[in-house]
Every structure is written in C-alpha cells, then in structure tokens.
Amino acid sequence: MSAEQQQKLNELADGFAGKLTELTRGVLGEESPRFHALNMGNRVRVAPIHDDEKVLRIPVRIGGVVRLSLLVRYFCCWDGHSAFLATDQSHVHLYYADVPDPLLRFEYERKSQEPPGAHVQVHAHRDEMAYLLRLSDAGRPGEKFRHDRLPRLSEMHLPVGGHRMRPSLEDVLLFLKREFGIDTAADWRTVIDRHLEEWRLMQLKSAVRDAPEAAAEVLRGLGYGVEAPKVAAQRSGKPAKLFWP
User: Fold this and answer.
1) Domain ranges, residue 179
2) What are 177-233's pLDDT values in tens digits?
3) 48 falls within a domain
4) Secondary structure of the chain in the HEC alphabet?
5) Rounded Cα gap, residues 162 and 111, in angstroms
6) Residue 144 pLDDT > 80, yes or no?
7) pTM of the model
8) Is residue 231 part of a domain?
9) Number of structural domains the chain divides into
10) Does residue 238 sit within a domain?
C-alpha cells in the first residue's frame, strides 16, 4: 500500500469513526465515548479507544442506571479494488453491566464462508441444544469431541443474512430499545433512521455491484432505460460476496 493510499484510508476511517460517534451519542446520549481510528498497518481499528489504546465499552442505561454495555470495534481496510472503505472484521458484543462474559456477540469476518462471515453467537444454555450438539460425530461438534471438549451454545455461529445483508450497529441499538427499553436521547429515532438508511443504501450498492444484471432487470421493469456496458467489467472466478453464506 502506497503512502497516498494509506493516508486516504486513514481519512475514510476517521470519517467512519465520526459517524459512529454521531450515531451512538445521538441514540444513547452525549456521555457515550468518542470513536477513534487507529492505524494498524494494512488495517485501521475504529472503536472507542482510551489513551492507553484499550477499547472502551459503551454504557447503556435503563431507568437511569447502567445495566448493559456494548463493546464495538471495527477493523477497516480497502475493498478489493482499493476504491471504497471495507469492513474486514466487526464485533458488537452486548454485556450485562461489567460482567466479563458477553450475552450476545454480533460479528463479521470479511473472508469467512464457513462459519458464515456474518453471524450471532448467544452465550446461554439449553439442555436440548447441548443434546443436539452432542449427537453428531462429524463437523464442528465431532471436532470438539476429538479434542475432549464439549460443544457450547456460545460457539454456534447463527447466520444473519450473509455478507451484504448483515445487521448493523443501528439494528442492535433498535433491538436494545425494543426488547429492554433502554434510555435514549430525545431525538434518537431520527438519528437512528438516518444512519440506518445510509447503511442499507450502502449495502444495496454493494449488492448491485455483485449482481448488476439482476439490478438492471429490476430497473427495466420499473421503466428505467438501462443498457449493458460496451466493455464488461472484469469478474473474478469466485462467487460474489452477495452469494456467500
């Protein structure tokens, strides 16, 4: 990566950090810690970062008392064409207050297909699920048994729509408001709706780049004039991210 590309990547990551700060403060209040972008070579870490570079949890209040906290961090890089900022990894972990073990983990791994790149992990226990995980001597459960480890529900990767349709931080915040009635700023809904629209449109554009013929077909059906390019774009032999698990 050239120095110019590195500088541009840092600028884009700084802008992303600013958007995340605007979102979390607009929803949870101005006391939410500010996001910062920290260069790590080929990637930039974007998270609420303390002076000692430790990632801070974001406090979430219910009835004026901090009952939950969110650990949010993104590792950003260039996309495959070095044209757009891409998320290489993202972690949104929900904790009960300061308990070290999370309740839920919403995670994304850009290069992963198995387990699915976008997934949720639930830190809980059900006897029926533990029984199901012990039935098979193949796959991931069998692999754990071969290493004398019992499978745990928290290690299951629950799919959530694939690489393009994965939930965002905005979706997690909406979930917390709907299910737990968390405290929010006065104008929280306007803020979250604006950011959610930006996220969904950005993901839609990425999906269109993955399947331009399907997008053109829909637009023609709506009455738009769409012509195929004279020179087709170079496509790799790999399936587009839209079709990844």
Assistant:
1) 3-117+157-220
2) 999 999 999 999 999 999 999 999 999 999 999 999 999 999 999 999 999 998 776
3) yes
4) CCHHHHHHHHHHHHHHHHHHHHHHHHHHCCCCCCEEEEECCCCEEEEEECCCCCECCEEEEECCEEEEEEEEEEEEEECCCCCCEEEEEEEEEEEECCCCCCCEEEEEECCCCCCCCEEEEECCCCHHHHHHHHHCCCHHHHHHHHCCCCCCHHHCCEECCCCCCCCCHHHHHHHHHHHHCCCCCCCHHHHHHHHHHHHHHHHHHHHHHHCHHHHHHHHHHCCCCCCCCCCCCCCCCCCCHHHCC
5) 12
6) no
7) 0.91
8) no
9) 1
10) no
**Alpha carbons 55 and 46: distance in angstroms, whole number:** 9
87 in any annotated domain: yes
pLDDT single digits (tens) 76-113: 999 877 889 999 999 999 999 889 999 999 999 999 99
Largest CA distance in the chain: 61
